[in-house]
Amino acid sequence: MENYELTDNMSMHRYEFNIGGLVPKIEYIRTDNGEIYLTHTEIPSQLEGKGIGSMLVGKVLEDIESKGLRLVPLCPFVAGYIQKHPQWRKIVLRGINI
Questions:
Q1: What is the pLDDT along the chain (98 residues), one digit of tens a residue?
Q2: CATH of the domain at 63
Q3: Does 70 reside within a domain?
Q4: Disulfide-capable partner of 78 in 6, 39, 70, 73 (CB 3.0 to 4.6 Å)?
Q5: Phi, psi (degrees; rounded to nearest 5) at 5
Q6: How far apart are alpha carbons 24 and 59 in whole angstroms?
Q7: Domain containing residue 71
Q8: Is residue 20 in some structural domain?
């Protein structure tokens, strides 16, 4: 599988890949106190089932960790990813149940 470059599109409040004009994305709300809420993941139907969603979540979590943000995973896809990869619980805001 190709390694796609993650873009933090701050003006649109989303992380995204650009894959041949298609844009898989994770929308977020970022607060001034260092929290980031991942609210919605969307993968174009032409790209579904290829592991792109999981790659996107993984890269987003790496970026969040590198920025020292605390995560609130409101999106069920992101929460499911963290359940399968419990090493990412370390960046989840304390008190949040996944």
A1: 689 999 999 999 999 999 999 999 999 999 999 999 999 999 999 999 999 999 999 999 999 999 999 999 999 999 999 999 999 999 999 998 88
A2: 3.40.630.30
A3: yes
A4: 73
A5: -85, 130
A6: 12
A7: 7-91
A8: yes
Q: Which residues of 42-81 are buried (b: 16+ CB within 10 A; e: fewer)?
A: ebeeebeeeebbbbbbebbbeebeeeebbbbbebebbbbb
What is the spatial distance between Cα 82 and Cα 64, in angstroms, rounded to a whole number? 13
Q: Where are the alpha helices (DSSP H) in 1-98?
A: 52-66, 76-84
- Three-state secondary-structure class, residue 1: coil
Residue whose tokens read 């970026």:
63
Q: In the chain, how many domains are there? A: 1
Q: Give the rounded distance of the alpha carbon of 28 from its chain centre.
A: 8
